[in-house]
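To assess whether ligand presence alters the predicted conformation, the chain was also submitted together with FE2/S2 (inorganic) cluster. Input:
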Amino acid sequence: MNLYQPHLMSIEAVQDETPDTRTLRLAFRDPAVAERFSFRAGQFGEYSVFGAGECTLCIANPPTRRGYIECSFKAVGKVTRALRELEAGEIVGFRGPYGNAFPVETWSGRRIVFVAGGIGLAPVRCVIWNVLDLRERFDEVTVVYGARSVADLVYKRELEGWRSRPDVRLVTTVNPGGQEPGWDGEVDCVPAVLERAAPGSENAVAVVCGPPVMIQHTLPVLARLGFPPDRIFTTLENRMKCGVGKCGRCNVGPVYVCKDGPVFSAAELATLPLDY
Ligand code: FES
């Protein structure tokens, strides 16, 4: 099969998360492909809108729930704007899964701390559900999630579900000025809220994803809380195009984000020419 030949998928459901963020649930048209398709938490795909081109998005559903794919996106470019025009029943293309993954299988018995900002919850959501679907394998689970405003929080129904679980500690926050009447979460930036929440770092791993400035300020907080750099993981997006190590567009220093990443530990990030 041609490397760049996409699988055909139909849009099964459309969910608006925020005024500018949407989630699509996609089903493989070919049942045999649906049957054999598998992926790992953190991998991504190239999604195509015929006539408009391809865009790179993470797979936002967990590998523990198979047979479909979910992606969440903002309409910020030509392809994502075209994707936003599509309705349930229409067809898109999907190539993947590509890239490496979060090493979830090595985290048995550990505490897991998730830290996300804005739409950065999409790749983290995939790992959260992966962990919650195998809940008995892990120790404490903490989720710290923030957005600019209450309206900008994605996956609101899932946040409510996690909040009501006795086996998950969820802390949500919005930036000052982003609260609404009745908001009972925190009002501060994610790194400050994480520092106050102070999840235990002993035998713990952290998964961090969000805007670069959030990651930049979160990594020192995690270091102060005692998380070693090799137990902090994040995922990068970097101008990906082919997704398979051919086009050379996604490099950061010596690494190709599409093949060597997109998941990196903070220890690995420290060796790359990034601002964090
Ligand atoms: S996206 Fe083409 S080499 Fe990485």
